[in-house]
Design a protein that fits this description.
With 361 residues, this protein is α+β, with helices and mostly antiparallel strands. It contains 9 helices and 18 strands. It has 2 domains: 164 residues, 2-Layer Sandwich (D-amino Acid Aminotransferase, Chain A, domain 1); 167 residues, D-amino Acid Aminotransferase, subunit A, domain 2 (D-amino Acid Aminotransferase, Chain A, domain 2, Alpha-Beta Barrel), CATH 3.20.10. The strands form 2 sheets. Strands 1, 2, 3, 4, 5, 6, 7, 8 and 18 form a 9-stranded mixed beta sheet that branches. Strands 9, 10, 11, 12, 13, 14, 15, 16 and 17 form a 9-stranded mixed beta sheet that branches. β16 and β17 form a beta hairpin. The model has no long low-confidence stretch (mean pLDDT 94). Its EC number is 2.6.1.42. GO terms for molecular function: branched-chain-amino-acid transaminase activity. Keywords: Amino-acid biosynthesis, Aminotransferase, Branched-chain amino acid biosynthesis, Pyridoxal phosphate, Transferase.
Length: 361
Amino acid sequence: MTLSFDRRLSENPASPERRAEILAAPAFGTIFTDHMAVVDYSEEKGWHNARIEPYGPISLDPAAAVFHYGQEIFEGLKAYKNAEGTVGLFRPEANAERLRRSAERLMMADLPVDIFVDACRELVDVEAEWIPTGPGESLYLRPFMIATEAFLGIRPSKTYTFCVIASPAGNYFGGDVRPVKIWVEREYARAGRGGTGAAKCGGNYASSLKPQVLAAQKGCDQVVYLDPLNDNAIEELGGMNVFFVVDGDTLVTPALSGSILEGITRSSILTLAAEKGLAVEERKVTLDEFRELAASGRVSEVFACGTAAVVTPIGALYDGDDVIGDPDAPAGPVTQQIREELLGIQTGAVEDRHGWVTRVR
């Protein structure tokens, strides 16, 4: 299914001077571009009214289902511009497929992959001048779908709106890449078995806000969640997957369990690591096992990954008063190599052997 996007461009876009000021020091998710992509859905018409329109508020009925029953899903991906000015999206089809899985879990309308990708391409094509080109910088895209039908009965909505907004982005954790500190969360859970952990929906992140704030109060950057019903198996961070380099030649990451989000960056790293000759293991990793491996020196590196932060070294895990690892340890060689290759593919500096980059212009 394909739709033609009507371009209704803003009469008051940001001036070139204002845009240059923003791009000189992009933050993350605080300033947005001039336009957004929007597509509507109803049971009668299906997906329709595809358009690029000025960025601005969305008007919804107070009884819209998204407000009362949480039918909301989203994605995150990036657009990059290389030195020659070529603009590309990194693995948008994978994000589109994950949005479809999230929609199925929350009983929302199925958005075809080509509409998702076309919406992202159309918006990036219009907003190409908003893409920063500094090291690690990009145009972050936030596609999302919300239930818009006005009703208070407990059933799936019959109408939806799909949008894509864009924000010039620098390093997620600010400044140069540095090792982050992670708090081991033992009281709160991000998601549970049989829940929505494998879906990318707002409720998962809402439940993570309190432990994230508590972790920040303890001087940590992020939280790592455990599965207390499975020997305190390590699951994921509040918004990222986690990897361990064991014995210098084995890359280990927690196996997908239904309560762990299947990250696009995670999948990409597994492919790149195997190509580098590293043994790759997706399996259960308990906190006790990690503690023992770290104490023996067998874990040489730990890093987190996700669309926003790409690859970020983890210095230490804080489990109460117990510190596991070195909070000041620099990124190790495996972490650096994987980060550099992944960014190289995204920006066009490294050959795209897997066809992961979708060219926009």
